[in-house]
Amino acid sequence: MSMKSAQNLKQSWDRIAARLRAELGEDLYSSWFARMEAEECQDRQLAVSVPTRFLKNWIESHYAARLQKISETEFGALDGVAIRVRSRGLPVRPQAETERREPAEAQPAATRVAADISSRPAIQAQPAGHDRGSPLDHSLTFENFLLGRSNALAHAAAMRVADAQPGEPLSFNPLFIHSAAGLGKTHMLNAISWRIRQQNPERKVLFITAERFMYHFITALRARDVISFKDFFQSIDVLLIDDFQFLQGKTMQQEFCHTFNSLVDAKRQVVIAADVPPAQLESIDQRMRSRLAGGLVVDVGLPELELRRAIIETRLGDVRRRDPSLIVGEDVIDFIASRITGGGREIEGALNRIIASQQLTRAPMTVDLASMALRDLAQPQADGARIRIDDILKIVGRHYNVARTDLLSPRRARTIVRPRQIGMYLAKKLTPRSLPEIGRRFGGRDHSTVLHAVRKIEDMLKTDDKLAREVALLIKLVEQQPPA
Fold first, then answer.
1. pTM (two decimals)
2. CATH tag, 138-299
3. Nearest 5 degrees, angle CA 304-CA 309-CA 310?
4. H/E element holding 178?
5. Could you confirm whether domain 384-479 is CATH 3.40.1620.10?
6. Using one digit for the tens of pLDDT, what is the confidence trace for 305-330?
7. Class assignment of domain 6-85?
8. Where do the domains of the chain lie?
Protein backbone atom coordinates (compact mmCIF):
# COMPACT_ATOMS: atom_id res chain seq x y z
CA MET A 1 0.00 0.00 0.00
CA SER A 2 1.38 3.38 -0.94
CA MET A 3 2.12 5.81 1.83
CA LYS A 4 -0.69 8.26 2.50
CA SER A 5 -0.06 11.92 3.06
CA ALA A 6 0.15 13.07 6.66
CA GLN A 7 -3.16 14.90 6.34
CA ASN A 8 -4.99 11.93 4.83
CA LEU A 9 -3.45 9.65 7.46
CA LYS A 10 -4.72 11.89 10.27
CA GLN A 11 -8.23 12.06 8.77
CA SER A 12 -8.34 8.28 8.38
CA TRP A 13 -7.12 7.80 11.94
CA ASP A 14 -9.76 10.22 13.27
CA ARG A 15 -12.45 8.04 11.67
CA ILE A 16 -10.86 4.90 13.14
CA ALA A 17 -10.77 6.55 16.58
CA ALA A 18 -14.44 7.52 16.29
CA ARG A 19 -15.34 3.91 15.43
CA LEU A 20 -13.27 2.60 18.37
CA ARG A 21 -15.05 5.02 20.70
CA ALA A 22 -18.46 3.92 19.40
CA GLU A 23 -17.70 0.19 19.72
CA LEU A 24 -15.85 0.21 23.05
CA GLY A 25 -17.63 3.00 24.88
CA GLU A 26 -16.20 6.20 26.27
CA ASP A 27 -14.60 4.67 29.38
CA LEU A 28 -12.60 1.96 27.58
CA TYR A 29 -11.65 4.25 24.74
CA SER A 30 -10.41 6.96 27.12
CA SER A 31 -8.45 4.41 29.15
CA TRP A 32 -6.61 2.68 26.29
CA PHE A 33 -6.86 4.54 22.96
CA ALA A 34 -7.21 8.28 23.67
CA ARG A 35 -3.44 8.86 23.41
CA MET A 36 -2.78 6.53 20.48
CA GLU A 37 -1.55 8.24 17.31
CA ALA A 38 -1.09 6.99 13.74
CA GLU A 39 2.53 7.20 12.58
CA GLU A 40 2.48 5.75 9.05
CA CYS A 41 0.79 3.22 6.79
CA GLN A 42 3.07 1.57 4.25
CA ASP A 43 3.34 -1.82 2.52
CA ARG A 44 0.10 -3.13 4.09
CA GLN A 45 1.44 -2.30 7.58
CA LEU A 46 -0.08 0.36 9.85
CA ALA A 47 2.18 1.81 12.57
CA VAL A 48 0.67 3.55 15.59
CA SER A 49 2.27 4.84 18.78
CA VAL A 50 1.37 5.15 22.46
CA PRO A 51 3.21 6.96 25.27
CA THR A 52 3.99 4.00 27.57
CA ARG A 53 5.11 0.39 27.32
CA PHE A 54 2.23 -0.67 29.56
CA LEU A 55 -0.33 0.65 27.05
CA LYS A 56 1.50 -1.10 24.21
CA ASN A 57 1.52 -4.45 26.03
CA TRP A 58 -2.09 -4.20 27.17
CA ILE A 59 -3.49 -3.25 23.74
CA GLU A 60 -1.44 -5.98 22.03
CA SER A 61 -2.77 -8.55 24.52
CA HIS A 62 -6.43 -7.51 24.54
CA TYR A 63 -7.33 -5.36 21.52
CA ALA A 64 -4.93 -6.24 18.68
CA ALA A 65 -7.48 -8.08 16.52
CA ARG A 66 -10.18 -5.44 16.98
CA LEU A 67 -7.74 -2.60 16.25
CA GLN A 68 -6.65 -4.27 13.00
CA LYS A 69 -10.22 -5.05 11.92
CA ILE A 70 -11.38 -1.46 12.43
CA SER A 71 -8.24 -0.06 10.77
CA GLU A 72 -8.92 -2.16 7.68
CA THR A 73 -12.17 -0.26 7.12
CA GLU A 74 -9.98 2.73 6.24
CA PHE A 75 -6.79 1.22 4.84
CA GLY A 76 -7.99 -2.02 3.29
CA ALA A 77 -6.47 -5.42 4.06
CA LEU A 78 -3.50 -5.12 6.44
CA ASP A 79 -0.79 -7.62 7.34
CA GLY A 80 -0.74 -6.19 10.84
CA VAL A 81 -0.79 -3.13 13.09
CA ALA A 82 2.55 -2.35 14.76
CA ILE A 83 2.34 -0.55 18.11
CA ARG A 84 5.35 1.52 19.12
CA VAL A 85 6.25 3.44 22.27
CA ARG A 86 6.82 7.11 21.58
CA SER A 87 10.20 8.35 22.76
CA ARG A 88 8.60 11.61 23.92
CA GLY A 89 6.47 9.68 26.43
CA LEU A 90 7.31 8.98 30.05
CA PRO A 91 10.58 7.13 30.78
CA VAL A 92 9.89 3.44 31.22
CA ARG A 93 11.78 1.07 33.43
CA PRO A 94 13.46 -1.98 31.84
CA GLN A 95 11.20 -5.00 31.53
CA ALA A 96 13.69 -7.81 31.85
CA GLU A 97 16.88 -8.52 33.72
CA THR A 98 18.72 -8.83 30.39
CA GLU A 99 17.88 -5.21 29.62
CA ARG A 100 19.30 -4.13 32.98
CA ARG A 101 22.56 -5.90 32.17
CA GLU A 102 23.16 -4.10 28.85
CA PRO A 103 26.28 -1.92 28.84
CA ALA A 104 25.49 1.56 30.15
CA GLU A 105 26.72 3.27 27.00
CA ALA A 106 24.27 1.23 24.89
CA GLN A 107 21.23 2.28 26.95
CA PRO A 108 19.14 5.43 26.53
CA ALA A 109 19.71 8.07 29.18
CA ALA A 110 16.32 7.52 30.81
CA THR A 111 16.99 3.78 31.08
CA ARG A 112 20.44 4.37 32.63
CA VAL A 113 18.82 6.62 35.25
CA ALA A 114 16.19 3.95 36.08
CA ALA A 115 18.87 1.26 36.34
CA ASP A 116 20.98 3.47 38.58
CA ILE A 117 18.04 4.12 40.92
CA SER A 118 17.13 0.41 41.12
CA SER A 119 20.70 -0.48 42.17
CA ARG A 120 20.69 1.81 45.23
CA PRO A 121 19.87 0.64 48.78
CA ALA A 122 16.25 -0.32 49.46
CA ILE A 123 15.30 2.91 51.20
CA GLN A 124 16.17 4.85 48.06
CA ALA A 125 15.09 2.31 45.47
CA GLN A 126 11.37 3.00 45.54
CA PRO A 127 10.63 6.69 46.04
CA ALA A 128 7.48 6.53 43.93
CA GLY A 129 6.12 3.65 45.98
CA HIS A 130 6.72 5.58 49.18
CA ASP A 131 4.78 8.53 47.74
CA ARG A 132 1.78 6.53 46.60
CA GLY A 133 1.76 3.67 49.10
CA SER A 134 0.49 3.56 52.65
CA PRO A 135 3.04 4.07 55.46
CA LEU A 136 4.76 0.90 56.63
CA ASP A 137 5.10 0.18 60.34
CA HIS A 138 8.72 -0.64 61.22
CA SER A 139 7.61 -2.78 64.16
CA LEU A 140 5.52 -5.18 62.04
CA THR A 141 7.99 -7.78 60.80
CA PHE A 142 8.17 -11.57 60.65
CA GLU A 143 10.68 -11.49 63.52
CA ASN A 144 8.05 -10.24 65.99
CA PHE A 145 5.05 -12.06 64.52
CA LEU A 146 3.70 -14.50 67.11
CA LEU A 147 2.95 -17.87 65.54
CA GLY A 148 0.23 -20.31 66.58
CA ARG A 149 -2.06 -22.95 65.11
CA SER A 150 -4.66 -20.34 64.14
CA ASN A 151 -2.31 -18.39 61.85
CA ALA A 152 0.27 -21.00 60.82
CA LEU A 153 -1.00 -21.55 57.26
CA ALA A 154 -1.33 -17.84 56.50
CA HIS A 155 2.14 -17.21 57.95
CA ALA A 156 3.69 -19.99 55.83
CA ALA A 157 2.06 -18.62 52.67
CA ALA A 158 3.22 -15.09 53.47
CA MET A 159 6.79 -16.34 54.02
CA ARG A 160 6.68 -18.20 50.69
CA VAL A 161 5.73 -14.98 48.91
CA ALA A 162 8.33 -12.91 50.76
CA ASP A 163 11.18 -15.36 50.08
CA ALA A 164 10.39 -15.90 46.38
CA GLN A 165 13.25 -14.85 44.11
CA PRO A 166 12.78 -12.76 40.95
CA GLY A 167 12.23 -14.92 37.91
CA GLU A 168 11.00 -17.97 39.86
CA PRO A 169 7.52 -19.33 39.06
CA LEU A 170 4.94 -17.94 41.50
CA SER A 171 3.60 -20.49 43.98
CA PHE A 172 0.16 -18.89 44.00
CA ASN A 173 -1.20 -15.62 42.67
CA PRO A 174 -3.00 -13.91 44.22
CA LEU A 175 -2.51 -14.72 47.89
CA PHE A 176 -5.77 -13.75 49.64
CA ILE A 177 -5.67 -13.52 53.46
CA HIS A 178 -8.92 -12.96 55.36
CA SER A 179 -9.94 -12.79 59.00
CA ALA A 180 -11.87 -10.71 61.48
CA ALA A 181 -10.33 -7.40 62.50
CA GLY A 182 -7.28 -7.46 64.77
CA LEU A 183 -5.93 -10.93 63.96
CA GLY A 184 -2.72 -9.96 62.14
CA LYS A 185 -3.51 -9.39 58.43
CA THR A 186 -1.89 -5.96 58.31
CA HIS A 187 1.09 -7.29 60.26
CA MET A 188 1.64 -9.98 57.60
CA LEU A 189 1.43 -7.52 54.69
CA ASN A 190 3.91 -5.18 56.39
CA ALA A 191 6.23 -8.10 57.13
CA ILE A 192 6.16 -9.25 53.49
CA SER A 193 7.03 -5.72 52.35
CA TRP A 194 9.98 -5.36 54.73
CA ARG A 195 11.39 -8.82 53.97
CA ILE A 196 11.32 -8.34 50.18
CA ARG A 197 12.92 -4.92 50.48
CA GLN A 198 15.70 -6.36 52.59
CA GLN A 199 16.36 -9.44 50.45
CA ASN A 200 15.66 -8.03 46.97
CA PRO A 201 15.93 -4.22 47.17
CA GLU A 202 15.77 -3.93 43.38
CA ARG A 203 12.16 -5.19 43.35
CA LYS A 204 9.42 -2.58 43.38
CA VAL A 205 7.09 -3.33 46.29
CA LEU A 206 3.94 -1.34 47.07
CA PHE A 207 1.84 -1.72 50.22
CA ILE A 208 -1.40 0.26 49.95
CA THR A 209 -4.88 0.26 51.46
CA ALA A 210 -7.96 0.08 49.24
CA GLU A 211 -8.89 3.55 50.46
CA ARG A 212 -5.56 5.01 49.35
CA PHE A 213 -5.81 3.24 45.97
CA MET A 214 -9.20 4.92 45.45
CA TYR A 215 -7.76 8.30 46.50
CA HIS A 216 -4.95 8.11 43.92
CA PHE A 217 -7.34 7.04 41.16
CA ILE A 218 -9.76 9.91 41.90
CA THR A 219 -6.83 12.34 41.96
CA ALA A 220 -5.67 11.04 38.58
CA LEU A 221 -9.18 11.42 37.15
CA ARG A 222 -9.42 15.02 38.32
CA ALA A 223 -5.98 15.79 36.90
CA ARG A 224 -6.86 13.96 33.65
CA ASP A 225 -3.74 11.89 34.06
CA VAL A 226 -5.15 8.35 34.30
CA ILE A 227 -2.46 7.02 31.95
CA SER A 228 0.32 7.88 34.41
CA PHE A 229 -1.71 6.24 37.20
CA LYS A 230 -2.07 3.05 35.15
CA ASP A 231 1.57 3.06 34.12
CA PHE A 232 2.75 3.43 37.72
CA PHE A 233 0.66 0.56 39.11
CA GLN A 234 1.56 -1.75 36.23
CA SER A 235 5.25 -1.23 37.01
CA ILE A 236 4.93 -2.81 40.46
CA ASP A 237 6.64 -6.17 41.08
CA VAL A 238 4.76 -7.01 44.29
CA LEU A 239 1.45 -5.31 45.08
CA LEU A 240 -0.05 -5.69 48.58
CA ILE A 241 -3.55 -4.29 49.21
CA ASP A 242 -5.04 -4.08 52.70
CA ASP A 243 -8.71 -3.64 53.74
CA PHE A 244 -9.86 -4.70 50.29
CA GLN A 245 -13.49 -4.91 51.46
CA PHE A 246 -13.64 -1.10 51.37
CA LEU A 247 -13.09 -0.88 47.60
CA GLN A 248 -16.29 0.77 46.38
CA GLY A 249 -17.75 2.08 43.13
CA LYS A 250 -18.15 0.46 39.72
CA THR A 251 -15.53 2.60 37.97
CA MET A 252 -13.07 2.08 40.82
CA GLN A 253 -13.54 -1.69 40.74
CA GLN A 254 -13.13 -1.75 36.95
CA GLU A 255 -9.84 0.11 37.30
CA PHE A 256 -8.60 -2.28 39.98
CA CYS A 257 -9.70 -5.21 37.81
CA HIS A 258 -7.58 -3.88 34.93
CA THR A 259 -4.61 -3.41 37.27
CA PHE A 260 -5.04 -6.84 38.88
CA ASN A 261 -5.46 -8.71 35.60
CA SER A 262 -2.46 -7.13 33.94
CA LEU A 263 -0.21 -7.76 36.97
CA VAL A 264 -1.28 -11.39 37.31
CA ASP A 265 -0.98 -11.95 33.54
CA ALA A 266 2.54 -10.48 33.70
CA LYS A 267 3.47 -12.89 36.54
CA ARG A 268 3.71 -10.11 39.12
CA GLN A 269 2.79 -11.06 42.72
CA VAL A 270 -0.44 -9.72 44.25
CA VAL A 271 -1.34 -10.12 47.95
CA ILE A 272 -4.75 -9.03 49.24
CA ALA A 273 -6.11 -8.84 52.80
CA ALA A 274 -9.79 -8.45 53.68
CA ASP A 275 -12.24 -9.12 56.50
CA VAL A 276 -14.13 -11.75 54.48
CA PRO A 277 -13.22 -14.38 51.82
CA PRO A 278 -13.69 -13.53 48.12
CA ALA A 279 -17.08 -15.26 47.90
CA GLN A 280 -18.48 -12.87 50.54
CA LEU A 281 -17.26 -9.65 48.88
CA GLU A 282 -20.78 -8.88 47.75
CA SER A 283 -19.96 -5.41 46.43
CA ILE A 284 -17.32 -6.84 44.08
CA ASP A 285 -18.16 -8.08 40.58
CA GLN A 286 -18.60 -11.87 40.34
CA ARG A 287 -15.82 -12.23 37.74
CA MET A 288 -13.40 -10.39 40.02
CA ARG A 289 -14.39 -12.56 42.98
CA SER A 290 -13.74 -15.63 40.86
CA ARG A 291 -10.24 -14.42 39.94
CA LEU A 292 -9.46 -13.58 43.56
CA ALA A 293 -10.46 -17.08 44.57
CA GLY A 294 -8.24 -18.56 41.86
CA GLY A 295 -5.05 -18.21 43.88
CA LEU A 296 -4.55 -19.30 47.48
CA VAL A 297 -7.23 -18.19 49.96
CA VAL A 298 -6.26 -18.60 53.62
CA ASP A 299 -7.97 -17.46 56.79
CA VAL A 300 -6.59 -16.45 60.17
CA GLY A 301 -8.65 -17.81 63.06
CA LEU A 302 -9.07 -16.55 66.59
CA PRO A 303 -5.90 -17.20 68.64
CA GLU A 304 -5.89 -20.35 70.72
CA LEU A 305 -5.10 -20.26 74.47
CA GLU A 306 -1.33 -20.77 74.03
CA LEU A 307 -1.10 -17.97 71.47
CA ARG A 308 -3.19 -15.61 73.60
CA ARG A 309 -0.84 -16.25 76.50
CA ALA A 310 2.18 -15.56 74.30
CA ILE A 311 0.61 -12.28 73.13
CA ILE A 312 -0.04 -11.20 76.72
CA GLU A 313 3.50 -12.04 77.86
CA THR A 314 5.03 -10.20 74.91
CA ARG A 315 2.94 -7.07 75.51
CA LEU A 316 3.68 -7.14 79.24
CA GLY A 317 7.38 -7.43 78.47
CA ASP A 318 7.19 -4.26 76.36
CA VAL A 319 5.41 -2.38 79.16
CA ARG A 320 7.82 -3.61 81.85
CA ARG A 321 10.75 -2.19 79.92
CA ARG A 322 9.12 1.22 80.29
CA ASP A 323 7.77 0.69 83.81
CA PRO A 324 9.74 -1.91 85.84
CA SER A 325 7.36 -1.43 88.78
CA LEU A 326 4.57 -3.24 86.93
CA ILE A 327 3.98 -6.71 88.41
CA VAL A 328 1.50 -9.16 86.89
CA GLY A 329 1.72 -12.73 88.16
CA GLU A 330 1.44 -15.94 86.16
CA ASP A 331 -2.00 -16.66 87.61
CA VAL A 332 -3.26 -13.28 86.36
CA ILE A 333 -1.80 -13.93 82.91
CA ASP A 334 -3.56 -17.31 82.81
CA PHE A 335 -6.82 -15.66 83.90
CA ILE A 336 -6.64 -13.01 81.15
CA ALA A 337 -5.76 -15.60 78.49
CA SER A 338 -8.72 -17.78 79.44
CA ARG A 339 -11.17 -14.87 79.87
CA ILE A 340 -10.40 -12.92 76.67
CA THR A 341 -10.97 -15.17 73.68
CA GLY A 342 -10.86 -12.54 70.94
CA GLY A 343 -8.00 -11.22 68.83
CA GLY A 344 -4.95 -9.11 69.52
CA ARG A 345 -6.83 -5.83 69.87
CA GLU A 346 -9.21 -7.24 72.48
CA ILE A 347 -6.27 -8.68 74.38
CA GLU A 348 -4.54 -5.30 74.15
CA GLY A 349 -7.64 -3.58 75.52
CA ALA A 350 -7.89 -6.01 78.42
CA LEU A 351 -4.21 -5.53 79.27
CA ASN A 352 -4.63 -1.75 79.19
CA ARG A 353 -7.34 -2.06 81.83
CA ILE A 354 -5.20 -4.30 84.03
CA ILE A 355 -2.19 -1.99 83.73
CA ALA A 356 -4.24 1.16 84.35
CA SER A 357 -5.88 -0.45 87.37
CA GLN A 358 -2.55 -1.33 88.98
CA GLN A 359 -0.94 2.01 88.14
CA LEU A 360 -3.86 3.91 89.67
CA THR A 361 -4.33 1.80 92.81
CA ARG A 362 -0.65 0.81 93.30
CA ALA A 363 -1.98 -2.45 94.72
CA PRO A 364 -0.59 -5.86 93.69
CA MET A 365 -2.64 -7.29 90.84
CA THR A 366 -4.56 -10.41 91.85
CA VAL A 367 -6.99 -12.60 89.95
CA ASP A 368 -9.89 -11.03 91.91
CA LEU A 369 -8.79 -7.49 91.00
CA ALA A 370 -8.25 -8.55 87.38
CA SER A 371 -11.75 -10.05 87.34
CA MET A 372 -13.17 -6.74 88.56
CA ALA A 373 -11.23 -4.78 85.94
CA LEU A 374 -12.49 -7.08 83.17
CA ARG A 375 -15.96 -7.65 84.58
CA ASP A 376 -17.79 -6.34 81.50
CA LEU A 377 -15.72 -8.24 78.94
CA ALA A 378 -17.88 -11.33 78.74
CA GLN A 379 -16.51 -14.56 77.40
CA PRO A 380 -18.40 -15.73 74.29
CA GLN A 381 -20.29 -18.93 74.80
CA ALA A 382 -18.56 -22.03 73.53
CA ASP A 383 -21.71 -23.26 71.86
CA GLY A 384 -22.20 -20.00 69.95
CA ALA A 385 -23.86 -21.73 67.02
CA ARG A 386 -27.11 -22.15 68.98
CA ILE A 387 -27.51 -18.41 69.53
CA ARG A 388 -29.77 -16.94 66.86
CA ILE A 389 -29.77 -13.41 65.46
CA ASP A 390 -33.56 -13.40 65.95
CA ASP A 391 -33.00 -13.87 69.70
CA ILE A 392 -30.56 -10.95 69.73
CA LEU A 393 -33.03 -8.71 67.88
CA LYS A 394 -35.81 -9.65 70.32
CA ILE A 395 -33.76 -9.05 73.48
CA VAL A 396 -32.14 -5.82 72.27
CA GLY A 397 -35.51 -4.48 71.12
CA ARG A 398 -37.15 -5.35 74.44
CA HIS A 399 -34.28 -3.85 76.49
CA TYR A 400 -34.27 -0.52 74.64
CA ASN A 401 -38.02 -0.46 73.93
CA VAL A 402 -37.44 -0.39 70.16
CA ALA A 403 -39.66 -2.29 67.74
CA ARG A 404 -38.05 -4.97 65.60
CA THR A 405 -39.29 -3.18 62.47
CA ASP A 406 -37.41 -0.04 63.57
CA LEU A 407 -34.18 -1.99 64.16
CA LEU A 408 -34.42 -3.33 60.61
CA SER A 409 -35.57 -0.06 59.05
CA PRO A 410 -33.37 2.67 57.48
CA ARG A 411 -34.32 5.13 60.25
CA ARG A 412 -31.32 7.02 61.68
CA ALA A 413 -32.72 8.36 64.97
CA ARG A 414 -30.17 8.05 67.80
CA THR A 415 -32.63 6.03 69.91
CA ILE A 416 -32.65 3.42 67.12
CA VAL A 417 -29.10 3.60 65.74
CA ARG A 418 -27.36 2.77 69.03
CA PRO A 419 -29.49 -0.34 69.84
CA ARG A 420 -29.06 -1.45 66.20
CA GLN A 421 -25.26 -1.11 66.50
CA ILE A 422 -25.28 -3.03 69.79
CA GLY A 423 -27.34 -5.77 68.15
CA MET A 424 -24.82 -6.06 65.29
CA TYR A 425 -21.97 -6.17 67.82
CA LEU A 426 -23.66 -9.01 69.75
CA ALA A 427 -24.39 -10.90 66.52
CA LYS A 428 -20.71 -10.69 65.56
CA LYS A 429 -19.48 -11.71 69.03
CA LEU A 430 -21.97 -14.44 69.88
CA THR A 431 -22.71 -16.12 66.53
CA PRO A 432 -20.53 -17.58 63.76
CA ARG A 433 -22.36 -15.52 61.13
CA SER A 434 -20.34 -13.54 58.60
CA LEU A 435 -20.52 -9.75 58.31
CA PRO A 436 -22.54 -9.86 55.06
CA GLU A 437 -25.02 -12.32 56.59
CA ILE A 438 -25.44 -10.18 59.70
CA GLY A 439 -26.01 -7.17 57.44
CA ARG A 440 -28.75 -9.03 55.56
CA ARG A 441 -30.46 -10.03 58.81
CA PHE A 442 -30.38 -6.40 60.00
CA GLY A 443 -32.48 -5.03 57.17
CA GLY A 444 -30.27 -5.77 54.15
CA ARG A 445 -27.33 -3.63 55.20
CA ASP A 446 -23.83 -3.74 53.69
CA HIS A 447 -21.09 -5.67 55.52
CA SER A 448 -19.09 -2.44 55.91
CA THR A 449 -21.98 -0.99 57.97
CA VAL A 450 -21.81 -3.99 60.31
CA LEU A 451 -18.03 -3.67 60.60
CA HIS A 452 -18.38 0.04 61.47
CA ALA A 453 -20.99 -0.77 64.14
CA VAL A 454 -18.83 -3.49 65.73
CA ARG A 455 -15.77 -1.25 65.88
CA LYS A 456 -17.84 1.65 67.22
CA ILE A 457 -19.22 -0.39 70.12
CA GLU A 458 -15.78 -1.93 70.82
CA ASP A 459 -14.27 1.56 71.13
CA MET A 460 -17.08 2.81 73.38
CA LEU A 461 -16.82 -0.22 75.70
CA LYS A 462 -13.26 0.81 76.57
CA THR A 463 -14.41 4.07 78.18
CA ASP A 464 -18.18 3.88 78.82
CA ASP A 465 -18.83 1.80 81.94
CA LYS A 466 -22.61 2.24 81.71
CA LEU A 467 -22.66 0.84 78.20
CA ALA A 468 -20.32 -1.98 79.27
CA ARG A 469 -22.74 -3.02 82.01
CA GLU A 470 -25.66 -2.92 79.56
CA VAL A 471 -23.82 -5.06 77.02
CA ALA A 472 -22.77 -7.56 79.71
CA LEU A 473 -26.43 -7.85 80.79
CA LEU A 474 -27.60 -8.33 77.20
CA ILE A 475 -25.00 -11.06 76.65
CA LYS A 476 -26.24 -12.85 79.75
CA LEU A 477 -29.86 -12.55 78.59
CA VAL A 478 -29.02 -13.84 75.11
CA GLU A 479 -27.02 -16.79 76.47
CA GLN A 480 -29.90 -17.72 78.77
CA GLN A 481 -32.28 -18.11 75.85
CA PRO A 482 -33.44 -21.73 75.41
CA PRO A 483 -32.14 -23.52 72.30
CA ALA A 484 -34.25 -23.07 69.17
1. 0.54
2. 3.40.50.300
3. 100
4. strand 175-178
5. no
6. 888 888 888 888 888 888 787 778 88
7. alpha beta
8. 6-85, 138-299, 305-373, 384-479
